[in-house]
Every structure is written in C-alpha cells, then in structure tokens.
Write a structure and sequence with these properties.
single chain; extended; mainly alpha
C-alpha cells in the first residue's frame, strides 16, 4: 500500500503543468491564471503556509525523482549502446532509491502540515490520481520502453 501512495503522489505534485497553463492564460491576457495557480490551495482548503509547504515539498520531491530517473535512463542507454542486457540489479537499486525518495518526501510533508491536512492531501491524491497508477509487484520485472518508441 505504501508503494501505491508514493506512486500516486508523484502525479499529484506535477505543479509545473498547472504553472504552464496559468502562464498561458496570463500571456494571452485571459483571466484565470491565478485560479489555476491556486488549484491545490482551493481544492484542499489549505492555508497559505500549508500551500507553501506543499509547493516546496513537491518541487524538491520532483527534482530528486527526476535525478533518480535520469540515472536509470542513463544505465539503460549505456547497456543498450553496448548491446548488453539491461542492468537489472542496478535498476532495482535505483527503484529502491525512488521509493526511499518518495517516502522521504511524504514524511517531510507530513511533518510540515497538520495531521488533518496531511490526511486530506492523502485522500485527495488517492482519489484523483491513485486510480491511474498501477504497481508492479516486488520482484516482477516490467518491460522498459526505449525513449521515443516501442521495444
């Protein structure tokens, strides 16, 4: 269950898409950019301090996960360039690192907001994003698509 929560939080933290959409409204002179930026604050009824904690946590979490993903992509690319098998052990370690990062992000957010607020965020993320996440059972291997295409 913990893995599902970690995986669900990642899309819930994709604030960049909201910011890009808001910037588009601003650039075209249309109203609504501020409402888009305030989506999480309004949907979760967060205080400004809670919103700031969520935003800073989301940014830090996404940066750390992006770095971990880059390491995995590099390991796969290196193996493919050498016509070698995918480095299963290294990828498993990197996946464990992703899980550790996500758990750390959730713990950080949990300590930054009240228990009620964290519970509300948890329910929101699970209900909005959890159904779009599938978990590969521990020990199972998932096919890895090469960048930009199918295998």
């Amino acid at each position: 269950m913990r893995r599902a929560l970690c995986a669900s939080f990642r899309p819930g933290f994709q604030r960049e898409a909201l910011e890009k959409s808001a910037a588009g409204f601003d650039a075209s002179g249309k109203p609504g950019g501020g409402k888009i930026r305030a989506f999480y604050q309004n949907a979760l009824r967060l205080t400004p301090a809670e919103t700031a904690a969520l935003k800073s946590n989301a940014i830090a979490c996404n940066q750390a996960l992006d770095q971990q993903n880059a390491l995995a992509q590099q390991a796969i690319a290196t193996a493919r360039a050498q016509n070698a098998p995918e480095p299963v052990t290294q990828l498993a370690q990197l996946e464990q690192g992703r899980l550790n990062i996500a758990n750390g992000c959730m713990q950080s957010l949990q300590s930054a907001v009240s228990a009620t607020t964290f519970r509300n965020i948890d329910v929101f993320v699970r209900s909005k994003f959890g159904r779009h996440v599938s978990i590969v059972p521990k020990g199972a291997t998932a096919p890895i698509k090469p960048p930009g295409g199918t295998k």
